[in-house]
Every structure is written in structure tokens, then in C-alpha cells.
Automatic annotation (TrEMBL), chains A, B:
It comes from Marinoscillum furvescens DSM 4134. This is Winged helix DNA-binding protein. The lineage of its organism: Bacteria, Pseudomonadati, Bacteroidota, Cytophagia, Cytophagales. The keyword DNA-binding applies. Keywords: DNA-binding. GO terms for molecular function: DNA binding.
DNA sequence: TTTTTAGGTTTATAATATAAACCAGTTTAT
DNA sequence: ATAAACTGGTTTATATTATAAACCTAAAAA
């Protein structure tokens, strides 16, 4: 239990962590919903979602709600696992 | 479920958080000790300790052990408070 | 038809983290 | 006594990250 395990830099970011935290409870959420809940700017959120997506932590699906574009995000199994590992590692620091 | 409170950026850093985590348990520690426990490079540690010091989260005292220079760090009351607030805020994110 | 709004993306800039290079002094080896 | 190597750091340069500003496309409203 001794020693500080490295913290996944992808998750050790306020906004990305908030996104993952939301998604782990929801399983699926729209861009606009995440934006509201996190209070992030659209630009920032767009960038951070891409990073999570490229890491395989979330899946991003682009569709439409009527004529309006809707970007939907879903956490992956890999994402859940990474989140849990991160939380465990973090506990050494704050426990 | 009050939403995501901002995370003190000074503490939301792997190395600085590890330092604070160590100091909160020890009350006082030498630079070299912190370096060993955290595995940080001296340069990085030096920079991060300065930041914590400038924020008033720790106090840095320079003395000697015989002829050898010894830099000693101590967490402040403000530092303890900041750490606790950070941990509380973080709990919203990680459950 | 022009303006505004929704739903984003791209790009430029600011902030951060990190390591490399360095410095003052001490100990060890020659 | 002098050179080489080690301690205990600091300073500076660079890579990475976070963030906001500027922008784009299409739809709805005026």
C-alpha cells in the first residue's frame, strides 16, 4: 500500500474526470447535457471528449434529433476500468 | 449532488498532492525524504515546493545538518484546510 | 432574406509539468 | 594539495495540457 502510484493523466483533469463521473452513472449522455452539468465551454468539452474517445474510454456517436445534430457519449468497459483504477490510486493520496 | 465544485488547481497535481499527503501525516519532512517517497526529480520537486510555499500551504526552512544543507518542509494550517477542501470536492467526482 | 440560435469544431494562447543543465559546497581518491 | 565525484538542491528550457476565442454549418425566427 505504500508509495504513490501514478495517476492516469487522462483522468487527472477536472473536466475529463467530471465527464467520466457523469457517464459512469448514466451510461449515455448528450453533449449538451454534459456541457450543462459540467459548466464547461463547448470548445473545451469538444476537445476533452475527443481525448477520452481516442483513449477508448468513451464512445462518441453522432446522430440527429429531428434536424438537430446530437452528439451522444457512452462510457466503455475500458473507461469504467480506467476510472476505477484511477479512484483506487487516488485513495493513496487522499485516503 | 450539488454539481462539480472546482478543484484547487494547486492541489490537483500529482506531485504536489503527494507532497501534501506526506506532510499532512508527518508535519515536517526533509527535501530528500520527500524526494525519495515521491520518486520526483529534484528539479521538479523544487519547483512544486516553491508553489506550495508561495500559496501558503507549506513552510520551507533552510538549515544545516552539520555541513550539509537541509531543506525542511512543514504543512501550514492553511495547507491542511486546503487539502481537506480539495478532498471533499473530489469526492463529488469519484463517488 | 437577413439575423439569430443551436450545436458543435478548429485553432491560438496561456498555464503547467517536467527534465536538463547548472551551481555551491563537501567528501573521497590520488 | 588537487582532481573527481557526490550532495543537495535551483534555474531555465521544453514539452504537454487546458482553455477560450474564433469559427463553421444548418435550422429557426424575424
Amino acid at each position: 500500500m505504500t508509495g504513490f502510484k501514478p495517476l492516469d493523466p487522462l483522468l487527472h483533469s477536472q473536466l475529463r474526470l467530471a465527464v467520466m463521473s457523469l457517464l459512469i452513472g448514466l451510461d449515455s449522455a448528450a453533449f449538451t447535457y454534459i456541457r450543462e452539468k459540467t459548466g464547461a465551454t463547448a470548445g473545451n468539452l469538444s476537445v476533452q471528449l475527443d481525448k477520452l474517445s481516442e483513449a477508448g474510454y468513451i464512445e462518441i456517436e453522432k446522430g440527429y434529433n429531428g434536424k438537430k445534430p446530437v452528439t451522444t457519449c457512452k462510457i466503455t468497459a475500458q473507461g469504467v476500468e480506467a476510472f476505477e483504477s484511477y479512484v483506487n490510486a487516488l485513495k493513496e493520496y487522499i485516503g
